[in-house]
Known about the structure:
Chain A is of the alpha+beta class and 139 residues long. Helix content of chain A is 25%, strand content 36%. Chain A has a domain of 90 residues: Thiol Ester Dehydrase, Chain A (Roll). In chain A, strands 1-3-4-5-2 form a five-stranded antiparallel β-sheet. Chain C is mainly beta and 147 residues long. Chains in contact: A-B, A-C, B-C.
Amino acid sequence: MSTLYFEDIEEGDELPAIDLFLSKDQVRQYARTAGMYVPRFTDDEGARAEGLPGMIAPGVMSMGLLAGMISDWNQAAEIKRIGTTFRSPVLPDRNIHLRGAVTQKIEADHTAECDIWLENDDGERWVVGTATVALPTKA
Amino acid sequence: MARILDLHLHSEASDDSRAPVEAYLKWLTRKRDERPLEGLVLTEHRQFNKAGDYRDLEDKYGLLILKASEVETDYGHMLVYGVNDDIISRFDFKNVRLSAQEVITEVARLGGIAMPCHPGRPTIGLIEHYQKKPPLEGVVGVEALNGGSKKGENERVAGLVQAYGYHAFGGSDSHLVSFVGLCATEFDRDIKTIEDLVDALRAGGYRPLDFRVQRPQTPLAPEVPNHGCGI
Amino acid sequence: MAVEFDRSIIGQVFDETSFPPVTKEEILEFAAALGEKNPLYTDEAKAAKGPYGSLIAPPTLVTKLRAKKFTPEHLPKFGKVGFDGGRDLEIHAPIRPGDVLTMASTIHDIYEKTGRTGSMYFIVIRNEVTNQKGEKVAVIDHRIMQR
């Protein structure tokens, strides 16, 4: 984990990528913790009964993972705002790739805008969004 | 003056994007080696951003910025280029059930051009509609390369383009700054104005360009310890 | 086909729920489920020496708060199935162990779009979360997609 100041980052910086295998057990663990232990997030049959291809990860789990990517990049980044669109259900038992980039630095309040997204092995972007982070300054 | 343009993207004027136009231009400038674009066309959802004035930004970054719209019809989404007051009066851009045939025909009659976008998308793409309904009259070209599409969607469009003799163009469909220009269109002629663009789209002599980087496939086996997500 | 509904429900608070105090265990469990490694969320001792003086919750913890009423009682059904279309979260104050959170819910907007899966309605539920000190903790806009 690093501590990055406002002066240390540049527009165009890519956040360190996180590649992981999202297992069904991990999704169930999150669902349990988040009080979302319902069929669509825990059981393939139950999810199919709702018209889904199988159990899916909650959208907010993906959001939480992307927030974690920001934290991993810079533990001093304070997330002021984070917004994500869940474009496609995130199916577990496969690889997911968390990505991000610094797109704007705002001098006035020492914040930065980041693009954040989750994609699969084929580069399909299942979750896309942005975050505004406040950063400490050396000044 | 531009030959390579991103024909489909959304700025903060669209309800589902927070991307400022200047941030798009900065990103293109930074990425010009990988994505050699000379201009972009803002295709805002369900509106024409008449008030948007980007001339200062054009001068500052040396990139062409044109304005257009993405509307929703009974044959899927369409990009409308060359929006003018007549077209604005004729159609309620906020209507998500516009008649595709009327849009194609009337926009052309009124001096613009309407072109189906992401035609390969399941359920709402043109290809799906053509399976259930008669083909539209007067379609000149379709967005054969859409940056937001899933695997297989763009490939399906090749069949459509061949079957109907449609021209093919590309656009990123970017809602995020860093996705600008990942897909674009290369024209054989210079585009300086929206009129040039409409003429060029009608005439042909353009093709989609794909600037997306293919990630090397390094699948993680289930036995590999997960980064971060501990059980 | 467009669904008719009473637009006066927009902006009206339809639910206010207070929650039991946030526990340290809850925070640690949530952080573990997301694989968080930041000591602010995972290490009580280190976090106590940090800028907040205590363990704090990962920023998305507020999304697990479940109101007594998810939507207003008389909201028409805009579709057969509902899906989470996305969330926008503003974070105003950290959440510490012992915080008592209250959440007020309103319908912020209802609109129709045609998207990846056809015609769909979006119901935007706005949750405003405050703590026992009356401080604004977070505002969450939850876009529920119904089709």
